[in-house]
Amino acid sequence: MADRAEYARKGIARGRSVVVLQYADGILFVAENPSRALHKVSEIYDRIAFAAVGKYNEFENLRIGGVRYADLRGYTYDRDDVTARGLANVYAQTLGTIFSSAAEKPYEVELIVAEVGDGPEDDQIYRLPHDGSIVDEHGSVAVGGNADQISSYLDQRHREGLTLAEALKLAVESLARDNNGGERSLTAEQLEVAVLDRTRPQQRKFKRVLGRQLARLLDSEGAAAAADSADEGEPPAEESSDTEE
């Protein structure tokens, strides 16, 4: 069993990381993923989303199974009966059975299932490692790659009430850190970003942040930093020309 666990952990560590963190209006998902076709973050149901790292074909099968479970349960009973906790239990049973079975190799995947509530205190985030255990997370969580280092960075800097732009900036900064303590530069084209936005009037709260909106959120932080540095120094000389008649 120790060998199987080590095999799964090595496979997961080769994948690029995913960060999930709460902000004032919902839950933010940020993944380092240059592909626009193979998603690491996906919608499952009205208020529930799924993120994963590891082997794509394995976690894609789990995602499809989760969508089928949610649709069937919502149709049979009620849409409110579909919860992240119930979905996490289904995934835990599946992963646990595969991990303990000697007939097949363990899945090289680590999952996050999140559900946005009516308020930040109602949000739910569950992390599911390869062995099928369930970890109830709060605030922020990272999986894949150098997840331990990223999680430590997030724990020190994440706080309640972040705006979307502030949360995105923190997530990108954490993903940009490498194992040696240095920092890389991540562009909008290298990121997959989505949110569960509790303020959306639609029943479905999942939304991908793409294109101009993503670039604007990333640039807004750069512009704010430039403005702060300008405020600390002398005002530019060009400002006087704005008063010309």
UniProtKB/TrEMBL annotation:
Pfam families: Proteasome
CDD domains, alphabetized: proteasome_protease_HslV
Reported regulation of activity: The formation of the proteasomal ATPase ARC-20S proteasome complex, likely via the docking of the C-termini of ARC into the intersubunit pockets in the alpha-rings, may trigger opening of the gate for substrate entry. Interconversion between the open-gate and close-gate conformations leads to a dynamic regulation of the 20S proteasome proteolysis activity.
InterPro entries attached to this UniProt entry: Ntn_hydrolases_N (IPR029055), Proteasome_alpha (IPR050115), Proteasome_alpha-type (IPR023332), Proteasome_asu_bac (IPR022296), Proteasome_sua/b (IPR001353)
Keyword Kinase: no
Gene Ontology, cellular component aspect: proteasome complex
Region spans: Disordered: 220-245
Acidic residues bias: start-end ranges: 229-245
Cellular compartment(s): Cytoplasm
Transmembrane region(s): none
Record keyword Cytoplasm present: yes
Family: Belongs to the peptidase T1A family.
HAMAP family reported in the protein's UniProt record: Proteasome_A_B (MF_00289_B)
Record's function text: Component of the proteasome core, a large protease complex with broad specificity involved in protein degradation.
Name recorded for this polypeptide: Proteasome subunit alpha
Organism this protein belongs to: Streptomyces cuspidosporus
Gene name tied to this protein: prcA
